[in-house]
């Protein structure tokens, strides 16, 4: 197993160190190559993602990423030039984001019930396509546009993936989230594709919900969701909310998948670089550790993935949530649990 | 005071009847003209918003709208052809949506604290502009686009309004919500406008937050928000979430304002037509009643507006939330309170 690791910025390196500690316990033979992409490299060399590095990354089985982003870098530079560039160059069309309320974890919701959903967020289109521009900048007549691009090809492969996942889950329920009543063109495409693909999955029940109403249900009845399929931006927004109601982004893992396996998939915590708490050893590495579990699942190492998840579940059920211990302590506990 | 009333679809007519009952107590001389726009008229005549009706509407001091939308009408027809058409034709650029947790009201959040925010949502641009289309429909090469259009003119007038509102509030705090790290063009325009206008309001503290992170804070620390200014789509999403955490969309009012007063402003509950509960007399008319208070404020009838708000606050503090009474009972209580 050849893994590329991009620790990145802020708390990225801290949580990745613990994730690798845990990985080392289950796959001691994994070969790790580190790449110093991120804010520091950009400051030092102006480089974001050199072609040569992109080439090397392609030559791995998967990528593990910590977080990118730093207040010293103008907004968008690292996101568009590094993180999103990786997602787009490596065709990470399925952005997989499970949200589960683990026993013992406190939700900010008073009466959360059981929450166990997967958000399948489209990863290579929509408003993230980077189409748009500024006209007459810095004049009273300035116009800024952003274009959401949705293709039949791009929507269909993600919707198919979501249906396959739904069909494999006990509840077999899929919710399309969009804003079809306003974004009528993109909404029409998404709705039609879901309708067509649903014909091949008569066992999966299908619901539709507007994105605004979905945020309401996320806080009043999150247990209703099983698999959600949605576009890139709605998925971005809803997965932060889903992470919040399941105990916070310190626990939320994600996989950026090329399900054709032509390119290595990339796994990362949903949280960002959190520069405000970086270097203090207080970031929760659990999201990074769970991202390793998703990575192992993707590479067929299901048993190791289950062991990591079970260890996380045990730790969350038994930890003192008021003083969970620092980054290292949590990492040490998880490493010990995994190897026991 | 000449008011145009569009009861609309679903629970719209039910909640509007109660809102008018309350209005009648404070402004008995208000002249009401009803317009039967909505699903039924569309089915009967194919009409959504005839030019002649639009002309008549312009001739009023304000518009009160219940809700539009019905499952029998394809998604988008009534929204784009009636509701959004009204907002755009009447230049309702400031979509004002207060979210306040009234004493006695239960939030789905375990520990909500005090919540009292105003969302100033841009109302005439962004992804709501209706720019976009379908290419190669129903082929494997279909492309659907949606264009977010943001102008210096459009953003600035809304940001100015938000700063003015923030400056008039005790906390004097304004949060710009956007996704500047991905939507770099629109994000750049919004950020620059906020920065420029902030120079004229040194008393207002300014924060920026990504829309995804904002949903987290809405459920973990909603009390941090005072005035939020944001674009049309982000505002749509966040105000449903803000309504949810402050007790539900049964209580959330909104104003679609043309702050130049060239056109009548329009007031409506944030909730939709809720066809599933229509006709049962169980819809809470409070959001519609609070929309009347916003309407009266806009028309300078501040004392009447305060009386309605105080009546709602009293009713919410003293009602049995497990059995609040039906639509009529709540309307009757509020009408009695207002006139007492
Ligand atoms: C950092 C940012 C570009 C990214 C996104 O918007 O996708 C993040 O919010 C995420 O959800 O992974
Ligand atoms: C019905 C719909 C078009 C509308 C919107 O998206 O603005 C509604 O959700 C709202 O918030 O008023």
TrEMBL record, chains A, B:
UniProt xrefs under PROSITE patterns: IDH_IMDH
InterPro entries for the chain: ICDH/IPMDH, IsoCit/isopropylmalate_DH_CS, IsoPropMal-DH-like_dom, LeuB_actb
Annotated Isopropylmalate dehydrogenase-like domain residues: 2-334
GO molecular function: 3-isopropylmalate dehydrogenase activity; magnesium ion binding; NAD binding
Sequence positions that bind Mg(2+): 212, 236, 240
Annotated positions for site Important for catalysis: 128, 179
Chief subcellular location: cytoplasm
One GO-annotated biological process of the protein: L-leucine biosynthetic process
Subunit structure: Homodimer.
Protein name per the record: 3-isopropylmalate dehydrogenase
């Amino acid at each position: 197993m050849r893994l590329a690791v991009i620790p990145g910025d802020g708390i990225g390196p801290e949580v990745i160190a613990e994730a690798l500690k845990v990985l080392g316990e289950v796959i001691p033979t994994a070969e790790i190559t580190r790449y110093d992409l991120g804010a520091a490299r950009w400051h030092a060399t102006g480089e974001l993602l050199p072609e040569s590095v992109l080439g090397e990354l392609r030559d791995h089985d998967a990528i593990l990423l910590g977080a990118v982003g730093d207040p010293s870098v103008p907004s968008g530079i690292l996101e568009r030039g590094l993180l999103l560039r990786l997602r787009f160059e490596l065709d990470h069309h399925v952005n997989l984001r499970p949200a589960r309320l683990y026993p013992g974890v406190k939700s900010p919701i008073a009466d959360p019930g059981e929450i166990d959903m997967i958000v399948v967020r489209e990863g290579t289109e929509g408003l993230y396509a980077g189409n748009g521009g500024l006209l007459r900048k810095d004049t009273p007549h300035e116009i800024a546009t952003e274009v959401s691009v949705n293709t039949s090809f791009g929507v269909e492969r993600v919707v198919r993936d979501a249906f396959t996942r739904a069909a494999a889950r006990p509840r077999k329920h899929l919710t399309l989230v969009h804003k079809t009543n306003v974004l009528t063109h993109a909404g029409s495409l998404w709705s039609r594709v879901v309708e067509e693909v649903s014909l091949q999955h008569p066992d999966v029940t299908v619901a539709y919900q507007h994105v605004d109403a979905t945020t309401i249900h996320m806080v009043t009845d999150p247990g209703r969701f099983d698999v959600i399929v949605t576009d890139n931006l709605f998925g971005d927004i809803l997965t932060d909310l889903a992470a919040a109601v399941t105990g916070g982004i310190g626990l939320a893992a994600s996989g950026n998948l090329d399900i054709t396996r032509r390119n290595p998939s990339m796994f990362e915590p949903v949280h960002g670089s959190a520069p405000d708490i970086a270097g203090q050893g207080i970031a929760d590495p659990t999201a990074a550790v769970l991202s390793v579990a998703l990575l192992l699942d993707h590479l067929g190492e299901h048993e190791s993935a289950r062991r990591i998840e079970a260890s996380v579940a045990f730790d969350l059920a038994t930890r003192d949530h008021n003083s969970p211990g620092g980054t290292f302590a949590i990492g040490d506990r998880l490493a010990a649990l995994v190897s026991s």
